[in-house]
TrEMBL record:
The lineage of its organism: Bacteria, Bacillati, Actinomycetota, Actinomycetes, Propionibacteriales. The keyword Magnesium does not apply. It comes from the Bacteria. This is Uncharacterized protein. Keywords: Acyltransferase, Transferase. PANTHER family: AMINOALKYLPHOSPHONATE N-ACETYLTRANSFERASE-RELATED, AMINOALKYLPHOSPHONATE N-ACETYLTRANSFERASE-RELATED-RELATED. It comes from Aeromicrobium chenweiae. Coiled coil: none annotated. InterPro entries: Acyl_CoA_acyltransferase, Bact_Acetyltransf, GNAT_dom. One of its GO terms (molecular function) is acyltransferase activity, transferring groups other than amino-acyl groups.
Length: 156
């Protein structure tokens, strides 16, 4: 059992992007960055600006993680062409709900690292919401280091 990355097709991209923007918006709300009212619409609007050509937007790569031809997760990578040396960011990474707890998140991370190595990318970055301790623990155990910390305090 070995995870491989396959390019995402347009149909899956459209449905997955709506899903991703929903959980991104919820993360922004829970982090106190956005009000709940209009959060999903804001995420969709920002996403449309970030991906003006959708799946075919340059410097963005979308993958389906598969094991034995079975979809187990998804990965979105963005490589900043202006950065020297080049760096890639994981924009979104997800293991399907029924597939979690089997080490597939780590395998998706390793596949992202392999993609970077194949494309002469020396740095892989990601963002994670502070309340997502499961993901933070995975990323730290995979060798990711904290490079920035954004903190907030509610004043009443």
């Amino acid at each position: 059992m070995s995870l491989t990355l396959q390019p995402m097709n347009a149909e899956l991209f459209a449905s997955w992007m709506r899903h991703v923007m929903g959980w991104y918006a919820q993360g922004k709300v829970e982090a106190g960055s956005w009000p709940e009212d209009g959060a999903v619409e804001r995420a969709l609007r920002e996403n449309a600006e970030q991906l003006p050509q959708g799946l075919d937007t340059p410097h963005n790569d979308f993958f389906v993680g598969t094991v034995d031809d079975r979809e187990v997760g998804y990965l979105w990578l963005y490589t900043d062409p202006a950065q020297t040396p080049p760096a890639t960011a994981i924009q979104a990474i997800e293991v399907l709900e029924g597939e979690r707890g089997q080490g597939l998140g780590r395998e998706l991370l390793e596949a992202a690292e392999g993609w970077c190595a194949d494309h002469s990318i020396q740095t892989l970055r990601l963002h994670v919401f502070g309340r997502n301790t499961t993901a933070i623990n995975l990323y730290e155990s995979a060798g990711f280091e904290t490079t920035n910390v954004l903190m907030a305090k509610t004043i009443r």
